[in-house]
Each structure stands twice: as structure tokens, then as C-alpha cells.
Amino acid sequence: RSSDIENDNSNDSDTAQRNKQSMTIYDLACGHGLGGMLLAYRFPEVGVVCVDTERRPCWNTYIEAFEKFGAKSPGNDSVMANLEFRVGDITTTTT
């Protein structure tokens, strides 16, 4: 029956959304961080953590540009609310 299929699909969609909300992407050795920023902007329901041994000066410039020209996702006060930068390396980064 088509109604059963529709109900099954809606459950799959709900599960996929919950999985995205609990997902975190780690961009290790991110350099300037633009790759992680693009992921965070494209997928606002997914947390993104950029990690590198130093925070490069261009990081703030990129963030300012996203905040000025980007669109906020519903329920967020900031365009990049799901983005974080950590100074460190793979051995010091924890969840």
C-alpha cells in the first residue's frame, strides 16, 4: 500500500535528520579552514570542528565574510553557529 510506503519514508527522513543533528565532522590539519567552513555553511545541522597547530589570520576574515553575506539557518543566531576551531593536532583533539 502506498500509505505504508509513505509512512516508512517519513520515518527514514526523521531518522536521517536526527543522525545529522548528532554528527560532527573533524577537519584535521585544516590549514586556513575554508574547507571546514564551507561544510559548516552547507550543512548547518552538522557540527564542524577545524583543527590545526595554529589559527591562521585569514580565519577571522573568512568568518566575518560568512557572517556578513551568508544566510542564517532557522533557529541560529549566527551563520556559522555549528563551526568551531581548535588549536592542536590529532593526538590532542577529543570529542
Name some characteristics of this structure.
3-stranded parallel β-sheet, alpha/beta, 17% strand, 95 residues
List the topology elements.
Blueprint: H1 2-21, E1 24-28, H2 34-42, E2 47-52, H3 58-69, E3 83-87
Short structural summary:
This protein has 3 helices and 3 strands. The chain is α/β, with parallel strands linked by helices.
Structural category: alpha/beta
Q: Which shape, going by the Cα principal axes?
A: flat
Strand count: 3
Instruction: Spell out the helices and strands N to C.
Output: HEHEHE
Percent range of helical residues: 40-55%
Characterize the biggest β-sheet.
3 strands, parallel
- Biggest sheet: strand arrangement: 1-2-3
* C-alpha Rg (nearest Å): 17 Å
Intertermini distance: 44 Å
Mean model confidence by pLDDT: 84
The proportion of residues in beta strands is 15-25%
What is the number of helices?
3
* Low-confidence spans: none
Q: Can you describe what's shown?
A:
- The chain is an alpha/beta fold and 95 residues long.
- Helices cover 43% and strands 17% of the residues.
- The protein has three helices and three strands; from the N terminus they run αβαβαβ.
- It has helices spanning 2-21, 34-42, 58-69; strands at residues 24-28, 47-52, 83-87.
- A three-stranded parallel beta sheet has the order 1-2-3, covered by helices on one side.
- The radius of gyration is 17 Å and the shape is flat.
- The N and C termini lie far apart (44 Å).
- The mean pLDDT is 84.
